[in-house]
Design a protein that fits this description.
mainly alpha; single chain; 0% strand; flat
Length: 162
């Protein structure tokens, strides 16, 4: 005969297993979404395509809207870059303040942990840059992506034949 505490223990085990499995699944989905998010160079062309597809824009409307979208997406990218720089500065200040409160042994561990985190971040950024370059999107964004809609390309530096 099973006792009530055994049933409760089995139910708690099932609940915990479901929580762990759900956590891993959520982590995997979020990681994939982050890895596949569009890079700033793709924001304007994607948004313009989205507007074109959803609103059935005419060529004239598309030509009028393109500079608006491009200008504002560039502004969003500048805001994003600025925010990332500010975030980095705040984190560095926080780490410095925390380090001052630690013992020498703790400070050594803290510095190692922060170095490992920076190296992992740098490796992720390097992999993202390589992925963009390998996909035909240069790191500096000088050339547009190949999937950019026609007419959404910046003018060349030099006219052909010169």
């Amino acid at each position: 005969m099973t006792k009530p505490w055994q049933i409760i223990l089995v139910l708690v085990g099932i609940f915990a297993a479901g929580g762990v499995a759900g956590g891993f699944l959520t982590l995997r989905i979020c990681k994939n979404k982050l890895a596949n998010r569009p890079v700033p160079e793709e924001w304007a062309p994607r948004h313009l395509k989205h507007l074109h597809d959803r609103l059935e824009l005419t060529k004239e409307q598309e030509e009028q809207i393109r500079p608006i979208v491009r200008r504002n997406m560039e502004h969003l990218n500048r805001i994003r870059s600025s925010s990332m720089e500010e975030t980095k500065t705040v984190v560095e200040i926080m780490q410095r303040e925390i380090s001052e409160k630690l013992t020498p042994e703790q400070r050594t561990k803290f510095d190692r942990i922060n170095r490992e985190l920076r190296e992992a971040r740098d490796a992720r950024e390097k992999a993202e840059r390589a992925k963009r370059v390998n996909a035909g999107r240069p790191e500096d964004g000088a050339r547009p992506p190949k999937d950019r809609p026609p007419g959404d390309r910046p003018p060349p530096d030099k006219p052909p034949g010169n």
